[in-house]
Design goal:
The complex is a heterodimer of chains A (225) and B (247). Chain A is built from 11 helices and no strands. With 225 residues, chain A is an all-alpha fold. Chain A has a single domain, classed as Orthogonal Bundle (MetI-like fold), CATH 1.10.3720. In chain A, helix 3 (59-70) runs parallel beside helix 9 (165-171), helix 5 (92-118) packs antiparallel against helix 8 (146-161) and helix 8 runs antiparallel to helix 11. The N and C termini of chain A lie far apart (46 Å). Chain B is 40% helix and 21% strand. Chain B has helices spanning 2-17, 30-44, 55-63, 77-84, 113-119, 134-145, 149-152, 162-170, 218-227, 230-238, and strands at 20-26, 47-53, 70-72, 94-99, 101-105, 125-128, 156-159, 176-180, 193-195, 204-210. In chain B, helix 2 (30-44) links the parallel strand 1 (20-26) and strand 2. Chain B starts with a helix and ends in a 9-residue tail after the last helix. The chains are: A mainly alpha (225), B alpha/beta (247). The interface between A and B is medium-sized, with 20 and 24 residues.
Chain lengths: 225, 247
């Protein structure tokens, strides 16, 4: 038995999606987290709430609104069409966009927590020693926030791997473009092909467990140091 | 003593007359089933709670011991498999309806779905997953029979059910979709659709079966009998289902 060609295509697609999304999320998440740490903007609470929404909303709600927003009558759809990109639903780009929104809190929150834990003191010391805000950010904040960034990277990656509801709503189940592992498993189960489903599902469980075990064991060690 | 006997008798007659049963119903048949159940409850005093989902999901739940008394599938394979595995009561399986396939367009009133389809004037065509949904399999057969398959296969988007295929078209993300006739049933808002001629695909027979849990429930048997009554057939006809016919 083992994986079929379609399973391997889905695995590869999912890994590619998770890698790209995680990279983009770090590029968005690190500055956002730092800005949230430092800002005195009175909308801060609202912005944190908006970022945290995907944590509590059912993926079907997100997927439903993403499908409408990215459609020809939605704001995102009109923007992408005006930019000449075309419509995002049923494309790999659409999945990347949806996944970024879906996994954003999993990346921003650990980084923000780590940055807030640094406190004022190291920043003041750096400033006294003549570091400008840029130097401080790259040489003090980022190294000190490293455990949070690592947690964010792993959570963002694994959360995107396990994404299902949003993909189901906006993906259109196209092999090689939007048919990710979770959708492939769902299809196997629905088609009563439980043996195929087990192969993929068990792989997901094992992979996620190993990654999380490494993450939390490492953190444990760090605390003890 | 007499009072007690009367009390026990009353209890028995209550359970005999008003039972509560659970029906597992394929999502594509949910709307007509609601109407059928309303009519059934009205004349029998039984209560029927409906659990709807894709046939595949309901099947998996039934073999894992879900408390359903009857199962109305959107296909014939799953009720057959339940009989073989002993979860269904042998001799109880029958075809309750034959589904009708239609094509709809995003602009339901202005566009002619058939012309758009044959001229290839669309970017995305939504169908239900042919591996899971009988309407999806029928859509693929139709496209092949019309010799459009090679032209459209790159434009296909696949919903997990006809419900999702419908949603893709209504939200404007696909221009055409193959769906069930029952989905466009709306007396207030007539949408234009193309009824796919039945000779273009194999018939979509939908089977029901009495489950083990329901074998002692009179109400379950009565509900299955009611599905074949004149009253139920009229409701199904409204929703675009054809009588089961021969097979």
């Amino acid at each position: 038995m083992g994986f079929s060609a379609a399973d391997i295509e889905a695995l590869w697609l999912t890994l590619r999606l998770a890698a790209i999304v995680t990279l983009l999320l770090l590029m968005i998440g690190i500055p956002t987290a730092w800005w949230l740490c430092r800002t005195r903007c009175r909308w801060k609470g609202l912005i944190i709430a908006i970022i945290a929404l995907p944590l509590v909303l059912p993926p079907t709600v997100l997927g439903f609104y993403l499908l409408l927003a990215m459609g020809p009558n939605g704001p995102v759809g009109q923007l992408t069409e005006a930019l000449g990109i075309g419509l995002l639903p049923f494309t790999f780009g659409g999945l990347v966009f949806g996944s970024i929104i879906y996994s954003l809190p999993f990346v921003v929150q650990p980084i923000q927590n780590a940055m807030e834990a640094i406190g004022e003191r190291p920043l003041e010391v750096a400033a006294t020693l003549g570091a400008n805000p840029r130097d401080t950010f790259f040489n003090v904040v980022l190294p000190l926030a490293k455990p949070g960034i690592l947690t964010a990277t792993i959570l963002g990656f694994t959360h995107t791997l396990g994404e299902f509801g949003v993909v189901l709503m906006i993906g259109g189940n196209i092999p090689g473009a939007t048919r990710v592992i979770s959708v492939q498993i769902y299809d196997h189960v629905e088609a009563m092909d439980y043996a195929q489903a087990h192969w993929l599902a068990a792989t997901m469980v094992l992979f996620s467990f190993v990654v999380l075990a490494i993450l939390y064991s490492r953190k444990h060690l760090m605390i003890w140091k | 003593m007499n009072v007690l006997r009367l009390f026990i008798l009353t209890l028995f007659s209550l359970t005999a007359h008003a039972q509560e049963i659970n029906a597992a119903v394929a999502s594509s048949f949910l709307l007509p089933m609601r109407d059928i159940v309303t009519a059934f409850e009205h004349q029998s005093q039984h209560r029927v709670s409906i659990a709807s989902g894709s046939s595949g999901k309901l099947y998996a739940q039934i073999i894992q011991g879900a408390p359903f008394d009857v199962f109305l599938s959107a296909d014939q394979e799953k009720p057959k498999a339940l009989l073989e595995s002993g979860h269904g009561i042998s001799g109880s399986r029958f075809t309750y309806a034959q589904g009708s396939l239609v094509v709809i367009a995003t602009n339901g009133l202005t566009d002619d779905p058939k012309a758009l389809l044959s001229r290839g004037e669309f970017n995305r065509l939504a169908i239900a997953n042919p591996r899971l949904a009988p309407y999806g399999a029928a859509a693929v057969e139709t496209l092949k029979a019309l010799t459009l398959w090679d032209a459209v296969s790159q434009k296909l988007v696949i919903g997990e059910s006809v419900g999702q295929a419908y949603h893709f078209v209504i939200s404007g993300n696909a221009q055409l979709a193959f769906i069930a006739r029952a989905q466009v049933y709306n007396p207030q808002r007539k949408a234009r659709y193309w009824p796919v001629p039945t000779k273009l695909h194999s018939p979509i027979y939908q089977d029901a079966v009495l489950l083990k849990k329901g074998s002692n429930q009179l109400a379950a048997k009565q509900l299955l009998a009611f599905l074949q009554s004149e009253q139920a057939l009229i409701i199904m006809d409204d929703y675009g289902y054809q009588p089961a016919g021969q097979q």
